[in-house]
Fold this protein.
Amino acid sequence: MSFLESLHTRARALDRKIVFPEGGEPRVLAAVATLVTEGLVRPVVLGRVDEVHAGLREAGVDPSAVLVIDPSGPEMLERTVPLARERLSRGTLSEAESRERAKDALVAAAFMVHLGEADGAVAGAVRATPEVVRAGLSCIGLSDDINTVSSSFYMVVPPFRGSEQEVLTFSDAGVVPQPDERQLAEIAAAAADARHAIVGDEPVVAFLSYSTLGSAAGDSVQRMARARDLFRELRPGVPSDGELQGDAALIEAVAARKAPGSPAAGKANVLIFPDLNSGNIAYKLVQRLAGADALGPIIQGLRRPFNDLSRGAAPADIVNVACITALMSENSP
C-alpha cells in the first residue's frame, strides 16, 4: 500500500468531522464531493447555504449528504460572537465589531475546532497562509509545550535508500522566516509529533547545515547545534542529531564517514532547515526535479489541527490534506 493509500485508509477508519470555510471555491467543493463519495471524512462546509448547495450539485454530490452552515447565521453567531470578543481582542472589540469578525468563515471554522464541534479544519485555497495561521493561533491557541507555529511539507519521494518510496518531513518551509535555536527546537518537536500521527512511523530528526558535526564553523552552524540540544530536552526519546549536511543526514554510507555513531545520520526522515529560504527552496526543488508529491504546508504547533493549503491546490491536494488533518486530530486534547 502506498503512503497516499494508507493515508486514506487510516483517515476513513477515524470518521472525523473536518470543516471547510471556503465554501464558495469550486476546488473545495470538488474535494468535498470526493471525501463524501469515498467516505474519508465527514465534511462541514461554511458559506451561504443556497450557493454551497448549488456548488455541491455541480460537483456531483447530493447536498443533503453534507452539513452546510452559514457563519453569519444567528445560531452560529450566538456561539462565536462572545468568543471573538474574548479571544481576538481580549474584550476591546465592541459588540458590533465582534459580530463582524465572527462572520468571517475562517474565524468561524477556527472557533468550531476550538469548541470541539469539528475535529479539524482545512483552508487556504483562497485565503493566504498568514490569515490561516492568525486565525488558528488566535482562535485555537498553541500546544502545551510549543510556543511556535510552523509548518511541514510531507515529501513522497522515489526510492533512494531501498526499493520502496519514502516520506520525508521538510520543516519549516512555510511560516517562520528566521527561527532562533529555541524556535528550531520547537519546530522539530512539533514536526516529530505530527509525523508520528500522519505517517505512522518513528521520527528521526536531523538539523541541517553546511557543516557536519563541526566540520565547518559559523553562526548558523552553532545555532543548529544548540537547537539539537534543546530539542533533546523537549523530546528525549526521539533520535536526533545535528548539525548535519544533507547527504550525511540521509545516506548511511556518507554518514559512516562523516558522522560515525550518530543516532540520526543516514536514517533521518524529519529534516529541519536553518531558515524559511532553505526549506522552501529545497521542497520545491525536490518536488520538481525528483517528481516528489508535496503535501502541505501542514500547520503544526496548534492545540488542534487547522491546516493550510497552497492557493494553487488541486482538489486531490485538498482531499489529502483533509485526511492528514483527520489523522492529526488523534493528538488533540
